[in-house]
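Cont'd.
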Amino acid sequence: MSHSIEFQHIGKTFPGVRALNDINFKAESGKVMALLGENGAGKSTLLKIMSGDLPAYDGTILLDEKPITFDSPYHAITAGISVIYQERQVIPELSVMENLFVGELPTNRFGFVDKAKLREETSRIIDDFEVPFKPDDIVGGLSIANQQMIEIMKAYRRDPKVIAFDEPTAPLAESEIGILFKLILRLKDQGKTILYVSHRLSEIFEIADEIVVLKDGELAKTFKTTETDENELVRTMVGREIGDTYSTLERNGKFGDILLEVDNIVTPYVNNISFTLRKGEILGLAGLVGAGRTEVARAIFGADPVLSGEIRIEGKPVKFQKPKHAIDAGIALCPEDRKEQGLVLYRNITDNTCMPVFDKLTTGVFLDPAKETRLADEAVRKYSIKTPTTDKLVVELSGGNQQKVILGRWTSDEVTPKLLILDEPTKGIDVGTKAEIYQMICDFAKQGMGVILVSSELIEVINLADTIVVMCGGRVTGRLPRKEATEENVLALAMKTDAGEKM
Amino acid sequence: MIERGKETVKNATIFGKLLRSRSTLLWAILVILIIFMCFKTSTGGSVSSVMSTGFLAEGNIRGIFLSIVVQGMMLIGLTCLIIGGEIDLSVGAQATVSAMLFAELCQSAPQLPWGVNVAICMALGVGIGLIYSFLVNVLKFMSFIATIGTSAVLSGLAMVWTNANIISIRQASFNAMGKIAFFGRLPLLFLFMMAILIVFAYIMSNTPYGRSIYMLGGNRTAARLAGLNPDHIRIKLFVQNSVLACVAGIFWASQMKLASPSAIVAALPDLSAITAAILGGVAFMGGKGNLAGAFAGMLLLNVFENMLNVLRVQPYWNIFAQGALLIAALVFDHISAEQHKRTLLKESMLDRLLT
Amino acid sequence: MKNKMKNKDFLKSKMFTLLVLEAALIIIFSIWARSIGNNFLTANTFLNLANSLVVTAFLAIGAGCLLISGEIDLSTAAVGAFGGVIVATAIRYWDLSWPLAVLLTLLLCAAFGAANALLVTRFNFQSFIATLAMASVAKGLMMFASVPPDGDNPIHVSFRSPGLEFVGGGKIGVLPFPVILIAIAFVVYGLLMSKTKFGRRTYMVGGNHRAAWLSGIDPKIILLILFINSSVLGGVSGVLASARAMQGGLQALGSAQFTGLTAAVLGGISFGGGTGGMGGAFVGLLIINTFQTGMQIVNVNAFWSNAFSGLILIAALAMDYFSNRAKTKIGS
């Protein structure tokens, strides 16, 4: 039985962002097609569309040459498309066999679950996968890697026509990856169509027949695996016109004393992180999603516990129990997810700007509206936030202006941090505003602040940061000064490929 | 020590074990309580006096059974609801309204066989359940607040109905049903309730519908992505819960031979059914637990309450204990869940260090 | 120009809708009462109305403050009843002077709030189940406290105290003292929530507690204060109820819990937290009490009001849902 899935002119727009634009390709039966691209290139969006999770999109999907649409994951599954999600979608309280057959439990003729059949079929799948657990084991008690295996087994079990893997190997160990690849090859022989999303180039060369590279929501190029190499792929992934955004920046030339020393810290999420930052320096933390960059930032800010190691500010060891302590010590954090962690969306600009400094804005026991407004006005003026009044609710502002409100919160007459941590400051922001924010970052450095810049956009880190620390899998994999950093070598370090190890 | 550590990592059934141990623990406590009660409360030491006086006395045992009959019916629906990640704080009020409707029908249309009245009350349950699922599915109310509101509406209506008076029931055949008991101690209604309990326990563990409730309560996103429809499951859950609550009201009426607009809620507060379920190992956030455990929890609560009663402890300590037990059970659940999370995290850190 | 804008905003605001609703209620009841030969618009009615506010007002304030922070307290009425009995017991059996008795009562009530906060912030309880269980605990203790030293069963604890009698029903000029107390409380809490840094932080925590935490605000401390506040205000209602009846009653504050909560939601404090204010809560309370007083005057069965208060809560929540949906549309 041969199958195929074809994407024709697929596009998807989120509020303010065109996530996918005119994607065309066809994945054939008995082939593994790899999807490759930087963070935000549109891979996940594409998978969500084909899994029925995002019903509204432009263009057509053809399954076995026939156009299909689905308005829920259920339709996609019954049509024969299974997606293995990066976030494990297991139900921890239930047994392995129920997790595998969720939504489609086998029944006997009375409508009851046929446990014998369930157990038997599960055992068969477990044998195929050579995994060390039993059908009746409760999933919550399994290791994370085994839970990921269950996710894969779940899709395999459905015997779908098309099967898509989203970063399946991230939590797996070498031996498990071996088993997985054997299985993928077997699926290929059975004539399934396989889509495989991964950051790990070595894997892609091992398993894929064809490679589709996505870039900024567009299809950059399609390769045959045999006709390309790692360097070409990396170049295609990152290759873009570098405008003169960066060349016109007025940078800070001189660094001061050492401001921050991170000495071998371990948190529940990252291992043995060390680096130093001088006053006036911009340090970029580069890496792929899940590399642990945000977690490092949170640890420095006192939002995650530090299990061992030491953080020193201006030579003095510090231990922050909560963000308040870090703020008092002169650290500020603009968090990764503006809407979830940064802003109180249904409050106005004034409140959002004044949030950390209500203490300093009182006259007697009451907040002084004049002082509050002055602070908010200052932020609006300094960062040219586009709004008629500071009474406007933050939710009504554009992404760029929202980000400026957060910057205004941390840099005003009342707060001047020594250390500013910016986590994805330009995510979802238009090009013009991005340039403004870049200049602001340089200005902060010129004022003598130390800046830690976390960004998924390599080009941004490479061009803004004075020093680039690259992370992968919760560890530091490399340190480069700006002069030596190129997108290729940073990406190689971030993906820990052979090219990276050679450096 | 190392051995044990290995066991926790390797043995995947740690959760199942915990569950089982909770259940066994409950039953053990129950047996000890009952034995203690038998000897503590009987007037003599001989077997016959233990059987005929104090805790095992006919009247006392029947009293326990009668309250279990009604609460058991409420518990079945509520437990399924909690496992599915929702809650209903109005089961007592629904039972009340159903009992009132039933009594009213018996009084104003005595020619109707009471079986028809039962059907009408169950239809009322379907209606209420549909309204609840509308509030939760469409208007996105949190179920606890929606049902707090409807609880006030329903009990208010029950009061208005008769101006806070009771309605007595004079259908002889119906009243007889509440009285039938085997061995003088085992009421027919109790057997009926047990039958329904067993049916639902079987549904919960052995049908795709029952398992989908666990899936919904355990991980809503996963359930949706696997093709289940959360809205449909919730409609079934709310309807079944309301129907069972309405039947519970009829059971109450048949025992008391009357319907009262305030007595059910006073005697069997919704909180105690929730406490029973949580004590019995049902996770408050959903996805875990079973009817057998919840039933054990309810038996324990009722025997405990009865013990206080027989020992002439003031009834207010029972009210106190209900809240305190619920808090204790939830704190215990939280701590064991935290520990489990910590083990998993440590394990994944170890993995990371090794690779 | 700016004034004009403000007027327009006001016409569109929820407060305006509520005031219109209140006015409509007054008009409806005036006509209805007239048609059956009663009179609604009398000084007596308004005094009754003011009096009916006394007990629920404090519950509404406590509920409102907590709802703004995104939490809920279902134990206030039970804690209040507990307080009402304790104050009576303290005066009658422990021979405490009334200010001391009140102080002791409020301290004990505060302990319930602290326990609620502990369960919610440390043990991750959902606040409704923590406080529901706590209500049961408080009720048990209340009954325990109302058992007289020479008896076995809980009974109403009656007591004499001229001082408390004045607090509960005394008049300054024409105004009953408790009404003055309420007016002061609404003003104080109104200022606290809208003009002080504590109030503003509460809104921030309710609006987005993670963002607040990352901005140096500690939600745990805010919630601790608010839960204690809610319990203490419950205690104040209980003390007032006792002071008016000169006895600590077992049935005190029966449905007041509900009225307080409904008033806050009706007044525009939405369930997710972060919106609304004391002014709205006050008008919400006024509407509910006008409704209840009106129903009495037109001789409608008192039990209807209970049923209606549930409906009002559901309607208020539905309103909230629709206005939130409208807001989200602007956002995206």
